[in-house]
């Protein structure tokens, strides 16, 4: 029997006796909560999953519907193009006063290298851009210039992987693959993800730049070559055209369908069937989309197709616009291997690289805008790194260059919800480290997906009992300052 002393206020027995019903309610609530959490956990799909490129509705209303990425492989020098540091003139040729993270020790020096090119305010926004980019100056009010990019890994391969696939490790899906996995495509007769390669060389990492990684192979980029035939094996030989080809494809479809029924859980079989079906549709659609003869002389001149230096890159930028118009989701245009990797002869190599891409890149922005497409199309321009503020290869003015820098560099974006005429972020007085408004590669990815109505931590693919994402658990954040109000 419980004594009055045992039930004295403040005693443990008093608490238990008077709270018995409350504790029971608390336990019941806890059990309900645990059951609800268990119900919310990701459950493995029942039966085989079907992967395709049919249009998908994003989680939130999107501002952007398509993207064209102008990939400047090698590392454009932000010091000489986007991020003026006039105070460095006082120290030109003198010893750099701080610490440097140099990649090429054999040719390293610590002599400050102030940019030999002039900068001037451009557009109504007054954005300062280099004289090497006269055409970009004309669209300054439409671009958002980020001067505080960072990956923090000084080698080309790792930094490419960070910006293209979210991590410095290989084997991951690239941005275009994630986009098409999450959104599909508006076009059913053209690839969802297209890679327009350079006639010179493939970029560093080659096909890894448009790889689907461990996503189903239907999300791999389709290569369009810079010369005819732009897509290999697309056009059948004369003796197979017409009814012969149609009957052959129908029979192949029959065999493939039977095979898929036996191996329903192998997504590569589904992807292969989809690729055959797409190839048949592309025989007409791709031929038409890649035919620049349909464009006016004024448009071709705008892109620089009438000039030797810009003809190739201008053609590919114009093709990109035509593909986006026809519902393709993601197009990436590559420059050749290490075009921007100016370890030496920067005073020659950098102007040549700018001459190749400046007019076509600016024309793409202006053309999309005049056609009413820029508001829903993101245009990206940039590479995997910038350059250091000191001389590399100190063997005379004609031979000097700059080493790698991934701790603070520049790139620009336009359209699709990004702020036009805006400069974001800041590097230190030497242009070495990003110090204000830092945009890590994973922040850029989170912001980009946000504009497409996707949540970076919710766009997942189940692999090895783990939900994989583009940002992969990194502290990614949406950089709202980059976005149009």
From TrEMBL:
Transmembrane portions of the chain: none
Pfam families linked to this entry: DUF1501 (PF07394)
PROSITE patterns, per database record: TAT
Signal peptide positions on this chain: none
Family matches, as InterPro entries: Alkaline_phosphatase_core_sf, DUF1501, TAT_signal
Domain of life according to the entry: Bacteria
The protein, known as: DUF1501 domain-containing protein
Organism: Blastopirellula marina
